[in-house]
Amino acid sequence: MRDRPVSTFTAKCRTIRESEGFRLIFFCELCDRGYTTPLLICDTLQEALRLGEQEARFYFNRCVCCHRRICDEHYDENRMVCTDC
């Protein structure tokens, strides 16, 4: 298991290697709320990251000001910005 930013999708991403593939946990860049992907059956971490990022896009918003990926709780849909901006 890793807690290093191996992903460019969010600043913090945890990778979990399982016998059949990978699970990735992407974290909101404001509150650290995480989204865990289903098991991604891939040969390489790079392939798992690509698939995981596609899956996680549905669970995070991108702030138009600071460009961070954030959860719905910290996103203003009307202004398309995070609660910090």
What does the model show?
With 85 residues, this protein is α+β, with helices and mostly antiparallel strands. The chain has one domain. Helices cover 14% and strands 28% of the residues. β2 (21-27) and β3 (34-36) form a beta hairpin. The chain is elongated.
Strand line-up across the major sheet: 1-2-3
What is the number of strand segments?
7
Beta-strand fraction estimate: 25-35%
Distance between the termini: 32 Å
By secondary-structure content and strand pairing, the structural class works out as alpha+beta
List keywords for this structure.
elongated, disordered N terminus, three-stranded antiparallel beta sheet, single chain, two-stranded antiparallel ribbon, 85 residues, alpha+beta
Layout of strands and helices, then pairs:
Blueprint: E1 13-18, E2 21-27, E3 34-36, H1 45-56, E4 61-62, E5 69-70, E6 75-76, E7 81-82
Antiparallel strand pairs: 1-2, 2-3, 4-5, 6-7
Task: Produce a short descriptive summary.
With 85 residues, this protein is an alpha+beta fold. Helices cover 14% and strands 28% of the residues.
